[in-house]
Specification:
With 278 residues, this protein is mostly helical. The protein is 79% helix and 0% strand. The protein has one domain. The protein is built from 11 helices and no strands. It is globular and about 50 Å long. Keywords: Cell membrane, Membrane, Transmembrane, Transmembrane helix.
Length: 278
């Protein structure tokens, strides 16, 4: 299995990781514009900024600093019809990013599909809208847990055990990250494997753990390199973001190959994927 994952990753993994790094920067702005539009539709305009902040907590500080102001400025500047026009364009743009991940999973499982292009795009757009709504719900749940924690602290200071349990809400971003990745892997896995008993969670778990590991270690590694800004100048922040998204993309490729390797059994060999693997 390890050989299968390593060979599959080295075959096209670095190319896919590079594509994901570029597309991540390109689609970040459209995604949060879509989030702001959906939040406004539900009468919760501030949730767009909260969604941004929730995402920035899962990236290294340098990347968060680079992205926070420009994305916030874009969200503040887009209102009314301009916001909805940006949301429509954003949905189409981010859908392309989703299709790239679908392509990675197809490559890992060794299948091809004859399903019409428009059908995939509509499915990707539906996933984007659902992910925004889930993110908003997760943020609201975290706010509720924080309020409960403060209530227990102020009213029942002796209830330290209950406070400790509620304080587990601090790991909510990590849990939400795993949940989002699991939904992504499950939804984009080719149907012949999605509908089988092949596990989907190992790839999502590896990708989430790798993501958090990169977030924790990248600043320390860059700190040992000295003045890397002398090499890239004013583009140093952008390069850090690209390196981060490249590493996360590589982890996603490994996760896809891991799931495909676990699905490869004598009964479900990938040597004969069929004409329509989807």
């Amino acid at each position: 299995m390890v050989k299968r994952v390593v060979v599959g990753t080295f075959q096209d993994g670095f190319t896919y990781a590079g594509n994901l790094a570029y597309l991540s920067l390109v689609t970040l702005f459209p995604f949060f514009i879509v989030a702001a539009a959906i939040a406004q539709l539900f009468g919760r305009s501030s949730e767009g900024i909260h969604t941004l902040e929730a995402f920035l907590r899962t990236v290294p500080p340098d990347v968060a600093t680079l992205l926070r102001k420009p994305v916030s400025d874009v969200l503040m500047a887009r209102t009314g019809n301009l916001l909805w026009f940006g949301a429509i364009v954003g949905l189409w743009t981010v859908a392309g990013f989703i299709e790239t991940i679908r392509g990675i999973l197809r490559q890992a499982y060794g299948v091809r599909s004859n399903t019409p292009f428009w059908q995939y795009r509509l499915g990707a757009i539906g996933m984007i809208i659902a992910s925004v709504i889930i993110t908003m719900a997760a943020f609201s749940f975290q706010v509720i847990l924080t309020g409960v924690e403060q209530f227990l602290y102020n009213i029942f200071p002796w209830a330290s055990e209950a406070q400790r349990i509620v304080s587990l809400s601090k790991i909510a971003p990590a849990v939400a990250l795993f949940g989002a990745l699991y939904i992504l892997f499950y939804s984009l896995t080719p149907s012949r494997y999605r509908k089988s008993k092949c596990p989907k969670w190992p790839g999502a778990l590896f990708t989430a753990a790798w993501w958090l590991l990169v977030t924790a270690l990248l600043p320390k590694i860059l700190g040992t390199l000295g003045n890397y800004d002398l090499t890239y100048g004013s583009l140093a922040g952008v390069m850090i973001a690209l390196i981060f998204f490249f590493l996360v993309g590589l982890g996603l490729v490994v996760g896809a190959e891991l799931n495909a390797a676990l699905a490869e059994t004598p009964e479900t060999s990938l040597e004969e994927p069929g004409k329509n693997g989807e």
